[in-house]
């Protein structure tokens, strides 16, 4: 072992690591329509519908902090974030499995609370809990959820099929979850410094807290698309920030994109809170994660249909790959966007 090279996992980054680990796996089953690389895998059923399957893990101390995360919300969120990946394929979620690794710090009552949240999410999204696994961990809580969905084959939407000229749309406000998290972290610091101080959760920031603690998956959008006869040309859910997600679509589709700064949806509460933190609201929307809205593209012939739908924001256009990924600012400037945000060029 001593003379073997040791490469730190951080050198590859998350996506580089996934690519490295999975590149030597070829799919061998005819039923595997799509494997690694999208929000969910696609499996043939032999019928007119296909299955989509996605897994996500949440780890205490990495994805959530019990200093400010109610167990019931955590149960709900564990389901939402997985259902969100099913929505990103334009499919309807139907089943979930939930696996947990728990340390002896957790009581039955605590786990009951977590499962109350899981149940509330199952009710909301109309999914069935069909299994899972329960085991112990040395430290903390680890949650792994798998979600299974279904859709007619022709409606399933990938990341890799955006075309030059397509219109870029977003289903809701961005940046709120990141700002909610910053507020909760700030309250935690105050509390740690002085345990007699009660954390102050201001009513006006309610929606920012909800965005990070209890996000909703946009199953309603999947229904709205079906009802209005719209099939997005490409789609992804916004788990890592608008910039990172538009890069995924562009890379997978072999295209570029131009985003209109003035048309990036940001809630007023979020704008005000960003400014209070001395942050640029647009940078927060581009780089802050966990909003679980859908980012999708449509053929321009569908623009008139989408324009009159509620809660859809028309935020940019797909351009040639050579044109890169750019932000057209309200001031009329064009800035390159990086996967983590956008370059201010010394502003
Ligand atoms: P998302 O953010 O939509 O949940 P991820 O970025 O987690 O997607 O994953 C991207 C793709 O890589 C998905 O197809 C996922 O199934 C796959 N993937 C992630 N980790 C692994 C792994 N350890 N082994 C195999 N596939 C993986
Ligand atoms: Mg996703």
Automatic annotation (TrEMBL):
Outline the extent of the PurM-like N-terminal domain: 37-150
Binding, Mg(2+) 3:
39, 85, 237
Documented EC number(s): 2.7.4.16
Task: Please give one Gene Ontology molecular function term for this protein.
Answer: thiamine-phosphate kinase activity
Q: Where does Mg(2+) 5 bind?
A: 240
Query: Known catalysed reaction(s)?
Result: thiamine phosphate + ATP = thiamine diphosphate + ADP
Q: Which residues bind Mg(2+) 1?
A: 55-56, 133
Q: Where is the PurM-like C-terminal domain?
A: 163-306
What species is given as this protein's source? Answer: Neolewinella antarctica
Per the record, the gene is: thiL
Q: Which residues bind Mg(2+) 4?
A: 39, 54, 85
Q: In which pathway does it act?
A: Cofactor biosynthesis; thiamine diphosphate biosynthesis; thiamine diphosphate from thiamine phosphate: step 1/1
Report the protein name in the record.
Answer: Thiamine-monophosphate kinase
PANTHER family, sorted: THIAMINE-MONOPHOSPHATE KINASE
**Residues binding Mg(2+) 2, per UniProt:** 56, 85
The keyword Ion transport is assigned to this record: no
């Amino acid at each position: 072992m001593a003379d073997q090279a040791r490469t730190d996992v951080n050198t590859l980054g998350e996506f580089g690591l996934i690519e490295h680990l999975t590149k030597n796996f070829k799919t061998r089953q005819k039923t595997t329509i799509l494997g690694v690389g999208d929000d969910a895998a696609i499996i043939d059923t032999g019928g007119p519908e296909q299955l989509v399957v996605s897994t996500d893990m949440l780890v205490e101390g990495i994805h959530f902090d019990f200093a400010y995360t109610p167990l019931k919300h955590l149960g709900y969120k564990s389901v939402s974030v997985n259902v969100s990946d099913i929505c990103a394929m334009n499919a309807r979620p139907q089943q979930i499995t939930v696996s947990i690794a728990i340390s002896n710090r957790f009581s039955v009552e605590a786990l009951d609370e977590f499962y109350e949240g899981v149940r509330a999410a199952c009710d909301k999204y109309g999914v069935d809990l069909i299994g899972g696994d329960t085991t112990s961990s040395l430290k903390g809580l680890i949650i792994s959820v798998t979600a299974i969905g279904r859709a007619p084959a022709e409606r399933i939407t990938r990341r890799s099929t955006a075309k030059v000229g397509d219109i870029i749309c977003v289903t809701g406000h961005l940046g709120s979850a990141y700002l909610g998290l910053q507020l909760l972290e700030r309250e935690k610091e105050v509390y740690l410094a002085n345990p007699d101080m009660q954390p102050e959760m201001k009513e006006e920031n309610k929606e920012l807290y909800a965005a990070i603690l209890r996000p909703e998956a946009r199953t309603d959008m999947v229904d709205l698309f079906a009802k209005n006869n719209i099939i997005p040309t490409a789609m992804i859910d916004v788990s890592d920030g608008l910039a990172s997600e538009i890069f995924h679509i562009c890379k997978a589709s072999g295209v570029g994109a131009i985003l209109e700064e003035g048309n990036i949806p940001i809630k007023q509460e979020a704008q005000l809170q960003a400014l209070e933190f001395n942050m640029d609201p647009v940078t927060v929307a581009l780089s802050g994660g966990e909003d679980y809205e859908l980012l999708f593209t449509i053929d321009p012939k569908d623009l008139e249909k989408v324009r009159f739908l509620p809660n859809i924001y028309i935020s940019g256009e797909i351009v040639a790959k050579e044109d890169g990924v750019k932000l057209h600012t309200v001031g009329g400037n064009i800035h390159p966007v990086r996967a983590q945000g956008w370059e201010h060029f010394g502003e």
